[in-house]
Amino acid sequence: MRRCFVSPVDRVEKIRLADGSNKMEEKNCEMKSLAAYQRIRDMIITREKLPGTRLVISELEEELGIGKGPIREALMRLDRSGLVRNIPYKGAVVAESPRMREIEIIYEMRVKLETTLALEAMQNMDEQGIAKLESMLSEMQPGLDLQALYHLDRQFHSLIYEYSRLTHLCLVVDKLMESVDIFLVNRPRDDNDLARMHEQHAQILEAFKMKDETMLKDIFKQNIKNGLRLIKKVYSRFMFH
Q1: Do 228 and 145 share a structural domain?
Q2: What is the pTM of this model?
Q3: Do 94 and 83 touch, CB atoms closer than 8 A?
């Protein structure tokens, strides 16, 4: 019986193609998992899914049009973020929102961590980063709906924290932010508050351009504490109605 000869070059090419195919498949899975995570998170923070609601994978699969695997990974990530709890014999459930005292402590921690990350980011910020911040700020117009502004605000801060190169602290901050986002997204619209937020972001950008550490630290504190002030305005109505 005649054997088919496969040259070393062909063998390497087949391995390369198979490896490329596997990597593409992995990337697609990651993208689907991220999409599922973002969709379910948005359902929670907009109160489409209320605290105590069971998150059934088969129902989410039909609702989102995404497979079970990515949804399962998304629920695990949401569990780590504190937005979802995995309860034995019951499955994934939307977690209860934090109480006011816990929110106050979260904001104390955020002020310390996020000002540190911002100051570290200033040492590494480049022209490309400044350009991205400028682009985000130009989109962050007070006339947008609150959910769109929420996403832009998160992207603006996340980009700054990426430049700190302190990956583990960035993950801590991300988890702290997610635990209170539900209050900020669902607050009543106040154009004065939105104008103040836009002005503070403009000042943050200016501080980076000038490399003014004192200005950056002061504005960051104001911006973060402004979030706590907004939560206090809506907390009672949000929790008990």
Answers
A1: yes
A2: 0.73
A3: yes
